[in-house]
Design brief:
Radius of gyration: 26 Å
Organism: candidate division WWE3 bacterium GW2011_GWC1_41_7
Distance between the termini: 34 Å
Structural class: alpha+beta
Strand order of the largest sheet: 1-2-7-3-4-5-6
Oligomer: single chain
CATH architecture of the largest domain: Ribbon
Helix content: 40-55%
Subcellular location: Membrane
Strand content: 15-25%
Number of helices: 4
CATH class of the largest domain: Mainly Beta
Protein name: Signal peptidase I
Keywords: Membrane, Transmembrane, Transmembrane helix
EC number: 3.4.21.89
CATH superfamily of the largest domain: Umud Fragment, subunit A
Length: about 210
């Protein structure tokens, strides 16, 4: 029995950790963290082995970018959009000046040749500060309907259910103890919540089993 309880506790905390990581990363990849710093998913292997396919990178805007910096910039199909859905993460291969503007020639580490179109600094979203391998797969899946249900809704429901069961069990113990001693204010709140939860549970059960015991 102790082994089962220990396994359940481990599973419970793993669910909490997974929910925090996936939900947190998915949220942070949709909004700026601070001053334009943001998480982006890498969906290709053009930067391997430095950045694995499916990684999540944290990119932060810089005043100046140098040759050798790994940067995230707007993909060609989204260059007119303020908050692009598609981005590219490549290394600054070379710097050039054209018509008085500084141009950045980028290249994926795994690619044989530089990218076809140089970019200007206004298209750069930030310099990569850190990359977390494979987390991007989970984040991308979590943003789909099925992924949101499996990775967010289901774990959250299990965690809430587990907490409600714990409160209910604690309330049962306190209800028994109420007959023997005076409860503290905090214990009274737990009992009241537990009694309400049990009453709701019985009402729901009666709806699904109208022919049950009277």
């Amino acid at each position: 029995m102790q082994i089962i309880k220990k396994f359940t506790n481990i599973l419970y905390w793993l669910l909490i950790i997974m929910l925090i990581i996936v939900a947190g990363t998915a949220a942070l990849s949709s909004f700026d963290i601070s001053g334009g710093t943001k998480l982006y998913s890498v969906q290709s292997g053009s930067m391997e082995p430095e950045i694995k396919t499916g990684s999540v990178v944290l990119s932060q805007p810089q005043t100046i970018y140098f040759r050798g910096d790994i940067i995230t910039f707007k993909a060609e199909k989204d260059r007119t959009v303020k908050n692009p859905r598609y981005t590219t993460t490549h290394r600054v291969h070379e710097l050039q000046e054209a018509e008085g503007k500084l141009m950045f020639i980028t290249k994926g580490d795994a690619n044989d040749s530089p990218d076809g179109t140089p970019i200007t600094q206004d298209l750069i979203l930030g310099k990569v500060l850190v990359a977390v391998p494979y987390l991007g797969y989970l984040v991308s899946f979590a943003k789909t309907e099925a992924g949101f249900i499996l990775l967010i809704i289901v774990p959250a429901t299990l965690i809430i259910y587990s907490e409600l069961v714990s409160i209910k069990n604690e309330a049962k113990k306190l209800i028994e103890e109420r007959k023997k001693r005076k409860l503290t204010a905090k214990e009274k709140v737990v009992v009241a919540f537990g009694e309400t939860e049990m009453a709701v549970g019985e009402s729901i059960s009666s709806l699904f089993d109208p022919g049950g015991k009277k």
